[in-house]
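Still learning. Show one?

>
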Amino acid sequence: MLRRLTLTIVILATAVGISACRSLIRDNAGAHATSPAPYPKSHVITAVTWNFSAAATSRKALGSDLWPCTWARDGNLYCAWGDGGGFDGNDDNIGRVSLGFARIAGIPVADGASGFTGKNVWGAPPYAENSATFGGKVVSLISVGGVLYAIGGLWTSENTANPVHTSERGPLNTLAWSSDQGRTWQIAPWSSPSTLGTFLNFGRDNAGAFDSYIYIYYVREGDSQHIYLKRVPKERLQSDPSIPGIYQYFTGADARGRVDAWSMQERDAGAIFFDSNNVNGPEVVYNSKLHRYLLTLGHYPSGRDSDSSAGKLGVFEAPHPWGPWATVGYYDDWGAFGPSAAGDFLGLHMPVKWISSDGKTLWCIFSGLNEFDAFNVVKGTLTTR
């Protein structure tokens, strides 16, 4: 009778808790996309529960979006924003720039409303510590050897009259780097005809990387259903990728995920991920506590950006950077944001610094349209086998 009474109390308490938090806490149940996930459900990370209570209480940098981040040598996160005033301005022309970089100290705590602060490092003074000199959009950052590297499509004085304030993505697909923690940036003297991809991030200043290469995920022009993987020696990251022998391209693995070969020719690359839906914004970080690689991306059947959404999210895990992948969560309306988030997918970023000591709690960053055009945080809790 004591067991039955205890069970009854637990059930009632759980029901009350679920009713009170239904709009704030959600897991995989009932949130999967109408189209099936491209990979089987993970047997390692069996579920993820999302707590959105901090999305409104800790929202910062109103009017600024994107927010790819990396964990730098000085212990802070460095993130890039687009078309806004960052942490010290707003979107109503107060500190507004096409591209800015911010320094974020601390880690969200409790409901996320405290624990971290943001400061504009590079943007529009006096709302930033240093003046922006070019614009565009940065989609990925990594810190290696104390140097910050940024991939993006940039505006410069060579392709527009006002690069600092010209909106949207610039036509110069290239790499920029900063040796002084984001105060000044140097643009590579080369460019690529297509986007370069997104970095695989390990620990602080990329500590914990299993070899001396930098890994980059990318999609081919005209093919949004496959993701490919390339790598470059870290000491040659600033080199022109069109030079033969600079980059190596993953060609395949055996059933256990062991690499078969790498090729110097991009045409030999084999896809490491496939979805019958089109995908965008793939981003991978390494969770060293769980020894798993976590992949986040958007999915949308039509392939048109206007049909994408912050809610059309996929989360996957793998034991190697190239797979084999398993599904953690696959959503059509992640967060139950509905129409307010429709029209763009700007990534779900999982800063390695914001992963808990047991690897099971993740504070993530996302942005989008309307009220989500800002720096938003959400707490993810992983259930492991």
